[in-house]
């Protein structure tokens, strides 16, 4: 019963957002290498790639690593970067070699009023070697966008040979 009510509320909210309009905001700080943390078992080269016009993430995994994950994140500057009323995250992504991507995730990390942290793993279609847009809904029963404090955009690779880029990070808000 609870799932049906929450689902109906989400559908109502989505409908309201569509009728009321929406606003898309460029998350320009995503193009600043200093904004990203190094969250990888090893080292992570983080740089703005002017030719690709996006952020390049090039992990160098420690020799003993068998699980090749890389999830750099940005801590939000509140209140300016608040995700209150956010309904969707959009970005473009590519990876080389694309066949080495096991899976990709967006991981928003929320902090509630009591200070308890909670991360939610949002599946994203694995990137290709050409730029493609990805869209992730933030309308979920287990996530309150207003409580998001950190956004991670990353992937798990099949082996240590992987580089990926993201650009045009945008947040869609219900107006």
User: What is the fold-level CATH name, i.e. the topology?
Assistant: Jelly Rolls
Q: How many separate helices?
A: 1
Residue runs with pLDDT of under 50 for 5 or more positions: 1-19
Query: In CATH, what is the class?
Result: Mainly Beta
State the major sheet: 6 strands, antiparallel
Q: Considering DSSP H and I runs of 4 or more, what fraction of the residues is helical?
A: 10-25%
The geometry reads as: globular
Task: Find the structural class using helix and strand composition.
Answer: mainly beta
User: Which homologous superfamily in CATH is the superfamily?
Assistant: Galactose-binding domain-like
Query: Helix-strand pattern, N to C?
Result: HEEEEEEEEEEEE
Radius of gyration: 17 Å
CATH architecture: Sandwich
Average pLDDT score: 90
Give the number of domains.
1
What portion of residues belong to β-strands?
A: over 45%
The total strand number stands at 12
What is the first-to-last residue Cα distance? 29 Å
List the helices and strands and how they pair.
Layout lengths: L1 H19 L1 E5 L15 E8 L4 E8 L6 E3 L2 E3 L10 E11 L4 E11 L5 E3 L2 E3 L7 E6 L10 E10 L5 E12 L1
Antiparallel strand pairs: 1-12, 2-3, 3-12, 4-11, 5-11, 6-10, 6-12, 7-8, 7-9, 7-11
What does this structure look like?
There is one protein chain. Helices cover 11% and strands 47% of the residues. With 175 residues, the chain is mainly beta. The chain has a single domain, classed as Galactose-binding domain-like (Jelly Rolls, Sandwich). The strands form two sheets. Strands 1, 2, 3, 6, 10 and 12 form a six-stranded antiparallel beta sheet that branches. Strands 4, 5, 7, 8, 9 and 11 form a six-stranded antiparallel beta sheet that branches. Strand 7 and strand 8 form a beta hairpin. It is globular, with a radius of gyration of 17 Å. 21% of the residues are buried.
């Amino acid at each position: 019963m609870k799932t049906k009510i929450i689902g109906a509320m989400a559908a109502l909210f989505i409908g309201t957002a569509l009728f009321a309009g929406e606003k898309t905001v460029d998350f320009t700080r995503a193009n600043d290498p200093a904004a990203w943390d190094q969250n990888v078992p090893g080292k992570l080269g983080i740089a703005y790639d002017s030719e690709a016009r996006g952020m390049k993430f090039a992990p160098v995994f420690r020799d003993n690593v068998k699980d090749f994950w890389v999830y750099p994140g940005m801590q939000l500057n509140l209140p300016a970067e608040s995700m209150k009323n956010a309904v969707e995250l959009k970005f473009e992504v590519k990876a080389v070699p694309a066949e080495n991507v096991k899976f990709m995730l967006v991981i928003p990390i929320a902090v509630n009023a009591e200070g308890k942290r909670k991360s939610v793993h949002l599946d994203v279609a694995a990137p290709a070697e050409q730029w493609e847009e990805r869209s992730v809904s933030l309308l979920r029963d287990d996530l309150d966008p207003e409580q998001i404090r950190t956004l991670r955009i990353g992937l798990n690779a099949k082996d240590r040979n992987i580089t990926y880029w993201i650009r045009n990070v945008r947040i869609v808000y219900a107006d």
